[in-house]
Every structure is written in structure tokens, then in C-alpha cells.
Give the backbone structure.
Amino acid sequence: MKIKSMRLKNFKRFSDLTIDCIPESAKLVLLVGANGSGKSSIFDAFHWLSKESASQSADSLAYYQKDKSAKVEGSLERYKDGFIRKTDRTLEQDNL
């Protein structure tokens, strides 16, 4: 998967995170950080945002949600077949 950008709000340990400007020509992208800094959370976000149909259960909301009073939002742009494909997802109590 070639990622162009990702945006997360209220996702696991991140209140608001944006990763952008990854060029299509990038051959290797590294995530480096101390334990507990959120590297695995970013991979959880890749998985959640790249699934064909995202789970909308109360369990998934509780698993991904940082602040229990706010919705979880995510956006993923990826390069595919010469185009940029964008996926937006939201998890909130009203959608369950």
C-alpha cells in the first residue's frame, strides 16, 4: 500500500494527528519512536481505514476512541492504479 496522507482525530492515543506529503516515489517510510508513542496505533488506523467495510459496533468504538465523549474520525489517501483513492470513516455512538 502506498500512502499519500492520513488524518486521525480521537483515535486511540491521538487527539489530532496528520501525516502528509509522502511522495508516490517513496520506496521506504519508517515509523520510529519510543515505546508508547503510537506506532502500533498508526498501523491499527491503516487497517481500520483500508478495510472494505468498517465495523460500526460499540466494541470497535470503545477500542479506537481516546475521548469517550467524542467521535472517532479518520481519513486515508493512498496511491492506487495511477489515482489517489480517499477513504473517510467516522465512528460515533449515533452510528451504532
About this structure: The helical segments are 39-50, 58-64.
